[in-house]
Amino acid sequence: MLTLRGLPFRHKLTLILTLTSGLGLLVACAAFMTYDVLSFRARMVDDLQALAEIIGDNSTAALAFNDPRAADVVLSALRAKPNIVDAYLYTPSGRIFARYQGPDAAAGLMPPPPEGAGHRFEGAHLLLFRTTFLKGDPVGTVCLRSDLREMSARLGRFGAAVALVLLASILFVLGLSSRLQSVVSRPIVDLAETARTVSVQRDYSVRAVERGTDEVAALTRAFNEMLDQIQARDNALRRAHDELEERVEQRTRQLRAEIAERRQAEEALRQSEEQLRQSQKMEAIGRLAGGIAHDFNNLLTAITGYGELLLQLIEPKSPMRRYAEEIRRASDRATALTRQLLAFGRKQLLELKIVDLNALVAGMDAMLRPVIGEDIRLVCSLEPSLGRVKADPGQIEQVILNLAVNARDAMPRGGSLTIRTANAELKGAEGWSEAAPAGSYVMLEVGDTGFGMDAETRSRVFEPFFTTKPKGKGTGLGLSMVYGIVKQSGGQILIDSAPGRGATFKILLPRSDGPVEAQAPRAPGAPAAAAHETVLLVEDEAVVRALAQDILVMNGYTVLAAAHGPEALAISERHKGPIHLMLTDVVMPYMNGRELYERLAPSRPQTKVLYMSGYADSGIVHGGAIVPGTAFIPKPFTPEALAAKVREVLGGARNN
Ligand SMILES: Nc1ncnc2c1ncn2[C@@H]1O[C@H](COP(=O)(O)OP(=O)(O)OP(=O)(O)O)[C@@H](O)[C@H]1O
Ligand SMILES: [Mg+2]
User: Fold this and answer.
1) Using a 6 Å cutoff on CB, does residue 510 contact ligand 1?
2) How many angstroms separate the alpha carbon of residue 462 from the centre of ligand 1?
3) Which domains does the chain possess?
4) Which of 234, 240, 245, 517 pairs with 189 at a CA distance of 20 to 30 A?
């Protein structure tokens, strides 16, 4: 049964058709055969009955006359009937009167005991008894025993015929059913095939072919409809899946971007914190250095000035002259240092002008070449449409010079020094310090191909006295000064450098367009000549006041000295003659230099003014302590410088 179940549908159908029709045929044949056997047996009985009657009738006389021989003759006629095995004639008392043994009679075959008329099948034989009457009285009984050979033969023939017919029919049915089964099986096989394709390939677009209008067709239709629904659902599912995947992808991208953004923001924050820390540190150091430098400046003014005066008074041949010269040399060095510290502390007085950096760089060419030497190539890359900046050109020159000297020192075996200018638009901090607001800038870049700096050095180069150069070679104030000047000019400075990869200093100055102002020619040291004018000297620092007074008196001026503004005003009131010039300090108690001048000017409109200061942060200029563009002499000054400046302000040397 299992194997039958496992068979393909069409084979199963063919087999079932063949089996059922074969079985039907078999049953029909069996019925025919049974009927035939039964009717054959009845005929046999009839035939035997007739034969027994004839034998009985012919034996009546022999029985009546008790003539067994005659009876034997009658019985011997049975020889013509080969199916008769043996035959007996019994007397009414049951004695065997005559007997016949056929040629085929078996040896052990016993005569049956006599019985009344009738017949029975016994084993392979048919036994028949018939009573013979004479005038109504029984005279004897005939017993015939027939074999069933004929019937067996007939049965055999019949069986063979039936088998043949059966075989032929089965073959015919097989052939026919295997052809006709496709009418039933084809749609089902198709359906099964379609279902298999769908399940194996997950292809919901295939459809089973619908044939006719029967139940299988209905099933096919239902199956196809189901496929339609599954396909629709599958498509929707796939779309949803694709959409989901797309969304996941998109979200992942977003998340990645957000993470990158956050990292960037964190990095920017870290950098700006670092910059803030750095600038706070620089601010603190700057304040300290600036304060010290300012106080030193006043002392140096006196040392320098009196050293100078001493030199003028000491005989050329005097041994004291060397001492005085040493004092002057030392004070010159101290003055240079103090100036750098002042620059770093942003306490210089800047003479701000609209400057064209290109012209300034070009003008420095001749000065720079000998400084950097022949092994270093100087490359200038200047932006033709460069914006202007507001700066002190002398200080910017100092900046470039310092950077160039550093670059030279970083390239002992030669290389190239590049000075580049460019316009820059800043949209945000963009790596510059948080103090650089968005806007238009001009960039000045000084780069070299030297040995560069590591991060540690880079973070400390602007500190005053930080140097990596051997003792006596560098003071470590060069970049401090650069830093102070840039900051005081409202700019920013950045270093791009790595060990072995050179260094580039980028300076960003706020753009300030306007007509370029010519740089004032450096005042030629006017030769000292005896003067007669009256100078009102106002200075709160006693040593400086005394020095200035000495210098002026030595140069022939009449000096009215005052320690502060109110005193100066009082002197001016008391003095009857003219006052040609007021030489005044800027920062003083009670009132500053400019206020003093404004108070003095109404009563003495002819009086000119010359400011002197070692201390000028932007507050002094912009806060109005002096008017930009008015005459000014920085402290410390040499006697010649002061004399020359006074002469210049008073209207040129008298000997011109
Ligand atoms: N272009 C450069 N390449 C490599 N290192 C540099 C460069 N510029 C400056 N430095 C480093 O920065 C340090 C500080 O420079 P800074 O100009 O302030 O002082 P200095 O050159 O050592 O001395 P000074 O300038 O006072 O003579 C230098 O000692 C050097 O280590
Ligand atoms: Mg230097």
Assistant:
1) no
2) 9
3) 16-102+113-171 (3.30.450.20), 352-510 (3.30.565.10), 534-650 (3.40.50.2300)
4) 234
